[in-house]
UniProtKB/TrEMBL annotation:
The keyword Cell cycle applies. The keyword Cell division applies. PANTHER family: LIPOPROTEIN YIAD-RELATED, STATOR ELEMENT OF FLAGELLAR MOTOR COMPLEX. Its main location: membrane. Part of the Tol-Pal system, which plays a role in outer membrane invagination during cell division and is important for maintaining outer membrane integrity. InterPro entries: Bact_OuterMem_StrucFunc, OMP_bac, OmpA-like, OmpA-like_sf, Pal, Pal_lipo_C. Residues 1-17 form the signal peptide. It comes from Litoreibacter meonggei. Residues 53-170 form the OmpA-like domain. This is Peptidoglycan-associated lipoprotein. The Tol-Pal system is composed of five core proteins: the inner membrane proteins TolA, TolQ and TolR, the periplasmic protein TolB and the outer membrane protein Pal. They form a network linking the inner and outer membranes and the peptidoglycan layer.
């Protein structure tokens, strides 16, 4: 009988733990062009230091989106990248890695190449706007790191992106 009681208590505990709310936001926030993907736990952008990476992510936005099979910078992306360049030019102790991503349609090889073109396009825009090229690196993930796993156009659009990831130190 002791074993049965232990099993019931353990099962009840596991069931209650499964019902608990996760402390992490998994809402996929940051899907819009220029929308940052960092959840600052309810901290408003006005409370953040304008020179912090958190400010960059939340207020400026680390993500720009692309059209299907394109690596051309559109007007919305241009506005976000201009703000990113301004922030990077004012915060020269930071460097960045520009990640290129694609949706799950197409072959792995094609999407890796497309992600590379998207990362390069965003990097080139930042360099053209005064960011020293030794502070920027690019990497492509193609379709390997989707923001959302899905099968609708609205969802695919979230994965066609370039993400600027801030890191400490020049060339780190």
């Amino acid at each position: 009988m002791k074993t049965f009681t232990k099993v019931v208590v353990l099962t009840t505990t596991l069931a209650l733990a499964a019902c608990a709310k996760s402390p992490f936001d998994r809402s996929g926030n940051g899907a819009g062009a220029g929308a940052g993907s960092l959840d600052n736990g309810g901290i408003s952008s006005s409370a953040l230091d304008a020179n912090s990476p958190a400010y960059f992510n939340q207020t400026i936005g680390d993500t720009v989106l692309f059209a299907v099979d394109q690596s051309t910078i559109n007007d919305t992306a241009r506005a976000t990248l201009s703000q990113q360049a301004n922030w990077l030019n004012n915060n020269t102790t930071y460097s960045a890695i520009v990640e290129g991503h694609a949706d799950e349609q197409g072959t792995r090889e094609y999407n890796l190449a497309l992600g590379a073109r998207r990362a390069a396009a965003a990097r080139d825009y930042l360099v053209a706007n005064g960011v020293a090229d030794n502070r920027l690196r690019t990497v492509t993930f193609g379709k390997e790191r989707p923001l959302a796993v899905c099968s609708t156009e609205e969802c695919y659009a979230k994965n066609r992106r370039a993400v600027t990831v801030i890191s400490a130190g020049v060339g780190s």
